[in-house]
Amino acid sequence: MKDEIRQNLIARLRAGEDPFPGILGFEGTVRPHLERALIAGHDVILLGERGQGKTRLIRTLTGLLDEWSPVVSGCEINDHPYEPVCVRCRRLAAELGDDLPVAWRYRDERYGEKLATPDTSVGDLIGDIDPVKVAEGRTLGDPETIHYGLVPRTNRGIFCLNELPDLAERIQVSLLNVLEERDIAVRGYALRLPLDLVLVASANPEDYTNRGRIITPLKDRFGAEIRTHYPLTLDDELAVIRQEAEVSWGGGTPDAVLPDHLIEVIARFTRLVRSSPAVDSRSGVSARFAIAAAEAVVAAAVRRAAIAGEDQPVARICDLPPVVGTLRGKVEFEVSEEGRESEVLEHLLRRATADTFRAHLGSADLSGLVARFTDGASVASSDLLPAAELLRRVGEVPGLAKIMERLDGDGGESPGQAAAALEFALEGLYLMRRLSKDVTDGGAVYRG
Q1: How confident is the model over 381-436, as pLDDT tens digits?
Q2: Residue 127's beta-bridge partner residues?
Q3: Domains of the chain, start order
Q4: pLDDT for res 387
């Protein structure tokens, strides 16, 4: 197995192909360590906070397996036809010779995964006596009465054990032989079954050191411990949101538009929450926080379009504050911030909006928009106000096409996108103290 993965990985690297497709932000950090570990033939443990893509990365390893692999037909542990190891297959090979039936397994079928939980047993992982086989007339001393666990059933494949520290310590002991001697022993049978597999585990640092622990002999048997991380740059954060957020649902639902400037606000918001001293850094802020925010904002735009009768839903800045409350459950706050959770998130969202405004419109000429609010004029907006009505209330704004171009890269004529750009500019001017704002139920009133 390790030779197979090594050869396929080296072939991909020589061809300039991506060995881990869909994994973003690990190019110069995690990936080189993982590539070295796989070439060295090591079993690997990925250590990192929640939502850093550990399981996603592990699942891409199946792409490094041969596309098709021969197995003895009907074998529970996927024996190779030329080198069977289980009692059944050795007996069949001796009886049938070249007539031994062969099946082919696709690479995705050679991956096994188990979420480690405190109630996981040795039987689940390694195997136990199968009472049904005993009831059929076999004796307890017959090795064919064994029901194999998940690990041997992934023989000649990759086995992933998620959240390893949550596995009871006495159960972790059952993996020692798998990692070192590459075999298993089941119950009291005089049976040592050589296995050929790659074992990959994931763990959270908090569990790793406090709530649960990996026993020292097991840690020692992993060839490589690799730390993962959240996206290091804003561009990586943006790429993750664009790749992972499901904002087009089909089934008759109109395709919604999530403007680039809103994606950037969400990305900056996520990074500010992650670095805030009010948030428990040991728990982390998952990438799922940003993904859920993007999906909720799009859902708010679709809801507005359905109620107001708009043809194309376009998300606006007014759709962001209402979703903050739904994201609270994804963040663990410090004890000292109890009762202030929503206040903290709302403050960080305003900072993210202001930073995005400065990055794109900080040097733009917005005097034409500001002039609209002279002599006490005001504009009311809300999360249910149609885009066309918002544009009518604001009136003609000189340079609106330029504002749209600075925000989203084009000067498109879509009323929804024009309204989204205009409302973002209004919110940015308020945050820059060039306009005032009165918050209303579900919206705001902007004044000079």
Answers
A1: 998 999 999 999 998 888 888 888 888 766 556 889 999 999 999 999 999 999 99
A2: 148
A3: 2-227 (3.40.50.300), 234-447 (no CATH)
A4: 92
52-88 pLDDT, tens digit per residue, is 999 999 999 999 999 999 999 999 999 999 999 888 8
Residue appearing with tokens 């009010």: 278
CA-closest candidate to residue 382, choices 434, 343, 437, 435: 437
HSE-CB of 433 using CA atoms within 13 angstroms: 0
Query: What's the per-residue H, E or C state across the chain?
Result: CHHHHHHHHHHHHHHCCCCCCCCCCCCCCHHHHHHHHHHHCCCEEEECCCCCCHHHHHHHHHHHCCCEEEEECCCCCCCECCECCCHHHHHHHHHHHHHCCEEEEEHHHHEEEEECCCCCCHHHHCEEECHHHHHCCCCCCCHHHEEECHHHHCCCEEEEEECHHHCCHHHHHHHHHHHCCCEECCCCCCCCEECCEEEEEEECHHHHHHHCCCCHHHHHHCCEEEECCCCCCHHHHHHHHHHHCCCCCCCCCCCCECCHHHHHHHHHHHHHHHHCCCECCCCCCCHHHHHHHHHHHHHHHHHHHHHHCCCCCECCHHHCHHHHHHHHHHCCECHHHCCCHHHHHHHHHHHHHHHHHHHHHCCCCCHHHHHCCHHHCEEEEECCCCHHHHHHHHCCCCCHHHHHHHHHCCCCCCHHHHHHHHHHHHHHHHHCCCCEEEEECCEEEEEC
Question: For 195-252, how does the pLDDT look when each residue is reduced to its tens digit (9 = 90+)?
Answer: 899 999 999 876 554 456 888 899 999 999 999 999 999 999 999 999 999 887 766 6
Tokens of 150: 């998940």
For the segment 302-330, what is each residue's pLDDT rounded down to a tens digit? 999 999 988 889 999 999 988 888 888 88
What pLDDT was estimated at residue 248? 79
